[in-house]
Amino acid sequence: MDGVENIVSNIKQSIKKFAQAFNLPEDHIEDVVKALMGGVPLYTLVGMEKSHVEARYVLARQFFESRRYTDAEPLFRWLCMYASDASRNWLGLAATLQAEKKYPEAREIYQVVALMSGLSDPAPFYYSGICFIGEQNKEDAVVAFKTVCTLANPDDPEHVFYIKNAKNLLENLENNTSN
């Protein structure tokens, strides 16, 4: 299996895990995977209004910002299932998992975000690096932060934030390694 097929397979497996978490019947799970892989948000398939989805996002953000991560996580999971086309939902879930110190799962979700951006957004790589630091994995953190510096566009003000912080973290990691 080549790299792209492996990534697609991993994404399908992640979607199946999310669908199973919602106790969907097995015969519906494949339909969900096909719809989501085809770019159709599930909320449209079940006849839900976008305003209801937006209200859940607002509530999930409020829970996250109030550090009520155990309340935010199921809402972000729901959003990732039903409005999978919005990267902000995936970022919210990943950030929540990261805040809960569920680093490996957070990094998996950051990978989804990276793929959604066509590998052009440095944010998921930056936050994956932070997860690696949380896991005391300096080697992979260095790789993640170097990836940020390579991918980020220095002309984009948002990217400059990630470049600056990634460089600072790289310097700290390198100084701590040499001591």
Number of helices: 10
From the alpha carbons, calculate the radius of gyration and give it in angstroms. Answer: 17 Å
Which quaternary structure do these chains form? single chain
Helix content: over 70%
Shape designation = globular
| End-to-end separation | 42 Å
Average residue-wise pLDDT: 86
Number of domains: 2
List its salient traits.
single chain; 179 residues; mainly alpha; globular
Description:
It is a single chain. This protein has 2 domains: 1-100, no CATH class; 117-179. With 179 residues, it is an all-alpha fold. 78% of the residues lie in helices and 0% in strands. The radius of gyration is 17 Å and the shape is globular. It contains 10 helices and no strands.
Short note summarizing the structure:
With 179 residues, the chain is mainly α. The protein has ten helices and no strands.
Outline the secondary-structure elements:
Layout: H1 3-21, H2 26-37, H3 42-45, H4 50-65, H5 69-82, H6 87-99, H7 103-116, H8 123-134, H9 138-151, H10 157-178
Helix pairs in contact: 1-2, 4-5, 5-6, 6-7, 7-8, 8-9, 9-10
